[in-house]
Specification:
Blueprint (H helix, E strand, L loop, with lengths): L1 H5 L25 E3 L7 E3 L3 H12 L3 E6 L17 E8 L5 E11 L9 H16 L3 E4 L3 H10 L1
Parallel strand pairs: 5-6
Antiparallel strand pairs: 1-2, 3-4, 4-5
Amino acid sequence: MKDYVENIRYEVISEKYDIGEFKDIEAYKDAIQPIKNSIYDAIVYDSGVEKQFALELDTDERIKLFIKLPSWFKVGTPVGGYNADWAIVTTKRNLQGEEEKERIYFIIETKGDVSNLRKNEQGKIDSAKKHFEVIEVNYKEVENYQQFATEMNEE
């Protein structure tokens, strides 16, 4: 990799960006979703899939707590740091309504269609799976909340 970086050359070209291209850029304030069952009162989401996932997490009574993991929370992998999307604590209740069993999940991907990830991204995910396995933390790759809820029910 070092050889590639050492051989990079940049040139000034006549092409320029027009200032008008920057006026309709989505800001964080446009991507904030208020929530209740988290350590924060809102999350910043990266996509419509993440927003919907957060809304469904927030209304599911089995979800005790969840957090959209910050970008600095990374699992080291041979192909670069990987940032999981979510940490979720679920609880199961007995017939009397008392908490019986807690589980912690790291949701690796909530990008919607995970079948078309770049090889580098897939390598990070595969490495992160091994990391979570070693520390005995459940991990899931899900395309939407319904898939997560189904898998949660099966455990």
